[in-house]
Design goal:
It contains six helices and 55 strands. By secondary structure, the chain is mostly beta strands. The strands form 14 sheets. A four-stranded antiparallel beta sheet has the order 1-28-27-26, with no helix packed on it. Strands 2-3-4-5 form a four-stranded antiparallel beta sheet, with no helix packed on it. The protein has a four-stranded antiparallel beta sheet with strand order 6-7-8-9, with no helix packed on it. Strand 33 and strand 34 form a beta hairpin. Helix 3 runs antiparallel to helix 4, helix 4 packs antiparallel against helix 5 and helix 5 runs antiparallel to helix 6. The longest helix has 13 residues. The protein is globular and about 90 Å long.
Amino acid sequence: MHFHDRAAISSVVPDNILFIEWNSQIEYFTYSADLKIHSWDGIAKDSSIKTITLNKGTHILDIDCMNISQQSMDHRKKSSETFAIGTSDGKCYIMHKTGRTERVIDAHKGAVMNAKWNHDGTSLLTSGEDGQLKIWSRSGMLRSTHTQRDSPIYSAVWSPFSTGVLYSSGKTITIQYFAANSKTLQWKAHESVVLVVAWSPISNLIASGSEDCHFKIWDPMGQLLFKSAPRLYPITSIAWSPDGAFCAFTTFSSVCVSSAYGSDILEGSMDGDGISSVCWSPEGSQLVVGNSTGRIQISHLVKGGLTWASYNVTKIAPNTLQLRDHFNETVELLEFRDDVILWSFKYGYLLLVNQTHCLIHKENGWNSPITVELRDKCPQFIKQTEKYFLIMDCGIVYVFSYDGALQGTPRISNQRLTTLTADHVTAAREVIATRNSSDGKSIHCCHYRTGKPVYGDKPLVHSGQVTKLELDPGSPTGDQLLAFTDAVRDLYLLSLSSGLNRVRSSLKIAGGVTSFAWNCDCSMLVMIREEELCVVPYPPAVPNDPALLDKFTIRQNIREYGKHVSIESFVGHQVTLQRGDGLTFPVYLSPYPSKLQQFVSNGQWDSAQRLCSSIKMEILWVCLAAMAVHYKQLDAAQVAFAALRETDKILYIDAIK
């Protein structure tokens, strides 16, 4: 992982840049001390300038943009973008991007230190030098005053789903929820004044920066997860990436990018000191920084590579990829006119997305891609299945075949999908499953073309917030499995059996899971927990007999790869792990469980029994017994239980016969 300076422009603003907001894929805004809004396109060319009208001697202290991803689908027009501006005279301005003032609020006695829109743009949070924290309506009406501190509140943000607020005052950080009887959480975070805080709605992690020159990452319970080495200067700004995987923070002279748990820090510099603001692009591949000399710099975050079968793809520049075939020992360079901002490599198809198009590269024809034009030109993520792929473009899911034909645009329960990430959407066979963007607890399943509900009209409701969900591509359509993790890192398995409005309950199969993935070729599940790689060779049997988990789970220690390792892919018997710095490592598992499952799925029970007899691994007999019971093959089950010396089960099968 490294920085690649994509564009830079100097001395474009007569005074220092105060804030930067990026509210669409091709446009971002800078706000300077001359009280002007500068609108730029994605390559740092000034497109328009609007003047903000404020009282003489007033200074801007905070600006927040209600961007496209915070608006409903009926108001996605770029012309409807609205800003909230906090100023030194205690007023909060609600302004249109054209410079028109819509409302002026007398918010605080003293300076307004923060002004933040909530996730759907219906409420505005302000904090002031007077130590008060207030919430306003979209039209500027006061709804509530939530706290009164003796010292100024320098930084305040909304919690995920806007159920509470996080703010800093002095050396402490406080989390206050709005629900009745909820407890307020407060802890000492730094040895000096906390200047900035940020809360990622995706990873649910909190970042803070202080005058003590330290940058820290916390969990929502106030437990310290990472503390940086002291920097030369205090931390001035913090921004989480849209997918919650990285956090950028700046000091007076440098910009740094840390992985979510601080396992790797990438540091860069900028010509001219006085870095004042940092902001991510909507898809999380670019970083724009401004400083006091009027300089803007856009950097492309070049991450690791992608692996599929014998192929490895590495991004060596924002618009250049290297494709290596280890089997044939060949290397190809793929160069493009525009920067590649999204990419995915599965099922023999390499998908590359720039701001306006999606390129579909097929095996044995890498240099002859199929081009698909994007309608809204604001891509957010890609999801691949065996027969089709999804692109989230400005809040709409588009389904394409690998020939480039549009298969449908399913509308999923009228949700505002713009706030979802790739972890919240999954697809397999003919089903798309999404997490509800309003409460984070409900899961909706629909047909990939029509968007009509499948498996009943009622959503699947979990007790906690769902952080990631994945459908099993190896299970049959009528009996699909859904795996998901929640906010406390518990992994659940849910059987989506056919039947309208059928009551379904999820089964917890593991705790402390940091990453998981399904096998692309067969029904196998791999997870990372407690520095171990755990493989469940046949999950469809688990809902019927949870005791099987302890008997046939394969475990392998991966402590040598370091902490905060995630699973990039699981193909065949190879698991590709990715470290926080972007480096990938292949881990090879035994090929026999997947081969056994292949025999069973083809109805070759005699071949499956011969494989177990020749290999003489007890875990294979356990897998065969579980599969035979699941498919109601009593003869094969009896043979497997005999090899395991399970006399009671053999007698039970005899009684059934």
